[in-house]
Design goal:
Elements: H1 4-19, E1 27-31, H2 33-36, E2 45-51, H3 58-72, E3 76-82, H4 83-88, H5 93-101, E4 103-104, H6 109-145
Parallel strand pairs: 2-3
Antiparallel strand pairs: 1-2, 1-4
Helix pairs in contact: 1-3
Protein name: Polymerase beta nucleotidyltransferase domain-containing protein
Pfam families: Polbeta
Domain Polymerase beta nucleotidyltransferase: 21-109
Length: 146
């Protein structure tokens, strides 16, 4: 069984792809060691992203996916696969492995959006507190003790 935290990280990554980068995603499939039960602390998270927007420049597409994945978790290792290749190129070993051994990750858009907005609000709140409140707290503390 795949750990819930892995699926949540993948969903967060997909949310960024769809909403910030405007990539229309057809399928998201988790595959590799995280499904085989061999997951360790240093294991990567292999994920295939299938989109009709892929297939023009695989290196550039892969680099963009890795950059965004790194914002969520550097262990996420995304592979871009065009919708056409997904349908037609079943002889390619990677596509064969993903199709035969992977599991599709379903996205509940409303639920994921709410969770990510809460996470972003917390991040912004932490920045504001660190930037503006430490001086006030120290000043208040010195007045209270003085």
């Amino acid at each position: 069984m795949v750990k819930k935290e892995i699926i949540e990280k993948v969903k967060e990554f997909v949310f960024l792809l769809e909403n910030r980068e405007k990539i229309k995603i057809d399928k998201v499939i988790l595959y590799g060691s995280c499904l085989r039960g061999g997951i360790r602390a240093d294991s990567d998270i292999d994920v295939a992203i299938i989109s009709s927007q892929f297939g023009k420049d695989r290196i550039e597409e892969g680099a963009k996916l890795f950059e965004i994945a790194g914002e969520v978790d550097p262990k996420i290792e995304p592979i871009p696969i065009s919708t056409k290749a997904w349908r037609e190129d079943t002889w390619i070993p990677l596509i064969f492995e993903v199709k035969s051994k992977g599991i599709e990750i379903k996205q509940k858009k409303g639920e994921q959006r709410k969770r990510l907005l809460q996470k972003e609000l917390k991040r912004i709140t932490d920045i504001v507190i660190k930037r503006y409140l430490p001086d006030k707290i120290i000043l208040f503390g010195s007045l209270a003790n003085g």
